[in-house]
Specification:
It holds the Pfam family Metallophos. This is Metallophosphoesterase family protein. By secondary structure, the protein is mainly β. It contains six helices and 31 strands.
């Protein structure tokens, strides 16, 4: 990034002489101030003008704030942070999360910033805002990461108790090789609900990922393993505290569980589909928790995006899946097929990225459903390289973010799908409602990777020319080794006419 300022013992030096607002940094005051931990970014609803800088502590701090400015002008502005707290019900530890909301930013612009509170050494980061209107950029996506750290002491030494593996660090390094504008995390971030120490596990996840997330927003969707017993009214209290996500008009207890933001001509809609999925896979069974509020918001959001001629692409990020060809794993969920897929069809969703299954696969474009009990999606084309998303939605399972339980070795051959059609009565031995499965054919299956356990997808958005097509070039990369070495495994291109939304014809 051009125009970087120097860093001295007291923090960041004054801005260059050309800056209009030179800044003198305070020397840390009292000893023992907690450090700025887990520094990370989020976009606001307009990614060209709004961002949030966040970090956390387990002790109270004074005057949390962010100093920021352009990479050419130096640190000339200050924004106070607002503090959100939650007390982990398992350990009793209170975590304080500090969120500084930056507004009035310039589109397509590089910023530098430093997060600090009194007595702490400033932590530095960079941010690039999205283009306003049609512009080229790249984003990435994976789910089901875990952590690379060993957090549980056993009789034979330390072990990872939250389904993490060393690959959870490798994938972060891989994302940084691409250096996207933002990264979508498709649920099951750190699996803290499984761990001995939930607060440590969240901290480990942020420590691993801050090397990327302090430079580009990591925009999450809550998965079933973000549901932690006792944390908040429905179990997502930790997730809701750590992230300050765009407002979606939800009640306070549901804030942050679904949201949307716009980057260029792409509208990203993030959902929490534990609300409508049948599977019982978190610390508590929360099926139907929003009372239909998320469904009503989603339909309104999709209708608005599809009616907006400045939006070309609608991308949905969620955790549980509509498609899967893995046997003896989670499977596809009928609840999503019943409740949300008809809306994806009606409003011309282009792309759905998910996790939950710990492998990579994708569908042909699908539109409509067979009149079966499982509502099997109908493929509308079978080409695998150039895909017209005005004809149907492409679903991608990208669940190899680093979990120690990959599912790429469990594919049906030939391709079939196990669909969860409901749950049985509560099993006292497990405390869970066992899933009920039906196996169906998978005519929608386009590609699946049985060779590589870990990786992510990169999406290169090309706005195209007026009167022509806009495209997204998609590459799925397998990640190998501690330096995030990338191996391209699957490549294809999504295409649609530029500026066609709002006309009410091409999206259906």
């Amino acid at each position: 990034m051009a125009g970087a300022t120097g860093i001295g013992l007291a923090g960041v030096t004054a801005a260059p002489a050309a800056a209009t607002s030179p800044l003198l940094w305070e020397r840390p005051g009292r000893l023992g101030a907690p450090r700025v931990s887990g520094l990370h970014l989020q976009f606001g609803s307009d990614a060209s003008r709004e961002a949030v800088v966040s970090w956390h502590t387990t002790a109270s701090v004074s005057n949390p704030r962010v100093k920021y400015g352009t990479s050419q002008g130096g640190f000339g502005r200050t924004e106070q942070a607002q503090t959100t707290t939650y007390r982990d019900a398992k350990s009793g530890t209170e975590v304080q999360v500090h969120h500084a909301r930056l507004t009035g930013l310039h589109p397509d612009t590089d910023y530098v910033y430093a997060a600090l509170h009194d007595g702490a050494t400033p932590e530095l980061g960079t941010l690039r805002t999205a283009p306003r209107g049609r512009g080229a950029f790249t984003f990435t996506s994976f789910g089901d990461q875990g952590t690379p750290t060993l957090g549980k002491l056993t009789a034979t030494g330390y072990a990872n108790d939250n389904l993490g593996s060393p690959a959870a660090g490798d994938t972060t390094a891989g994302v940084e090789h691409i250096a996207p504008l933002f990264h979508l995390v498709n649920g099951d971030l750190c699996y803290a609900n499984l761990s001995t120490d939930r607060v440590r596990t969240w901290s480990d996840w942020f420590e691993n990922n801050s090397r990327s997330a302090r430079h580009r927003p990591w925009m999450p969707a809550a998965g079933n393993h973000e549901n932690e017993l006792g944390n908040g009214p429905i179990g997502y209290g930790a997730y809701q505290a750590y992230f300050s996500l765009p407002a979606a008009g939800a009640d306070q207890e549901l804030s942050g569980l679904w949201y949307s933001f716009t980057a260029g001509a792409v509208r990203v809609i993030s959902l929490n589909n534990d609300d409508i999925a049948y599977q019982d896979a978190g610390n508590s069974y929360v099926h139907g928790y929003s009372g239909g509020a998320q469904q009503r918001w989603l339909e309104h959001e999709l209708a608005a995006a599809d009616a907006d001629p400045e939006i070309d692409w609608i991308v949905v990020c969620m955790h549980q899946v509509v498609i899967s060809t893995a046997d003896k794993f989670n499977g596809a969920d009928l609840g999503i097929r019943e409740t949300w897929v008809p809306l994806f069809d009606r409003y011309g969703v282009d792309l759905v990225v998910c996790g939950h299954e710990h492998h990579y696969e994708r569908s042909h474009p699908i539109r409509g459903q067979q009149p079966t009990d499982t509502r099997t999606p109908i493929p509308v084309a079978t080409g695998t390289e150039l895909i017209d998303t005005t004809k149907g939605t492409v679903h991608m399972v990208i669940g190899g973010g680093g979990t120690s339980a990959p599912s790429n070795g469990l594919f049906f051959s030939p391709a079939k799908c196990r669909v969860i059609t409901g749950v049985g009565p509560l099993d006292p031995a497990t405390g869970k409602r066992p899933p009920l499965y039906v196996v169906e054919d998978a005519p929608w299956s386009a590609y699946r990777d049985g060779e590589h356990s870990y990786g992510f997808a990169a999406f290169e958005v090309d706005p195209g020319e007026r009167g022509g097509n806009t495209t997204i070039a998609v590459t799925y990369y397998a990640v190998t080794g501690p330096y995030g070495d990338l191996l391209p495994v699957d490549r294809f291109t999504l295409t649609r006419p530029r500026g066609a939304r709002g006309a009410g014809s091409l999206s259906r």
